[in-house]
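Researcher: I've been going back and forth with a colleague about how Pentatricopeptide repeat-containing protein might be arranged in three dimensions. Neither of us has a model we trust, so I'd like an independent prediction. The organism is Datura stramonium, in case that matters for your notes. Sequence below.
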Amino acid sequence: MVVGYAQHGFGKKALEIYAMMQSSGVKPNDITFLGVLSACGHVELLDEGLHHFTSMTNVHGIIPRTDHLACIDSLFARKGKTKEAYGFIQSFSGEPDKVVWRCLFSGCKANRDFILGKYASEKILDIDPDDTSAYIVLSNIYAELQMWDEKAKIRKLIKEKALKKETGHSWIELHNKMYTFSACHIMSLQESYLQHVLTGLTAQLLDSGYVPDLMFSLNFEE
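Model: Here is an independent structure prediction for Pentatricopeptide repeat-containing protein. You can compare it with whatever you and your colleague have in mind.
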């Protein structure tokens, strides 16, 4: 229940369920804390998330995994505290995995911390040398920092490795029918009612002040 509420955005309800568990003497496990920390992330309760992370080890004797570290990493990032997120990663006794570095990178992306974002991208590539999106974003970061030689090296490496970004797909339910599509298939939707819906949603986003972040656009074209 804790994980279910957390996954669907009901952070406060998830924490209420956890409080009920504690008052009833139900012992939590590592999965419970994934739900609790995720719930704290949804409602941006950094201090409470840190409290639960500490109690997981000190009170319940559960050794944190990289999944738990990623949750705390995301919490710091949601608060715009990318440096603190990196410091927390450094204090972790285990070896951070790709997911942890992606969480840090996402925070850097949201808060435009290019220097730390560059470092996180490089760590991702150390773990997975064929991560196409990390190469593209790192190239864009080099451009933002005016590191043109490094940018050229990344672009050359992409071509040498013949890397291709996997096509992202979106889906939407309309009139009890599910539509799946990608950017390369959008032309087939031009005459459909779905295209009118998508156009209307895009107009609402722009009217609300949304501005696409071209800095982090994952395009292969310059």
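Researcher: What would you highlight for our discussion?
Model: I'd start with this: The two ends are 47 Å apart (CA to CA). After that, consider the following. The chain has eleven helices and two strands.
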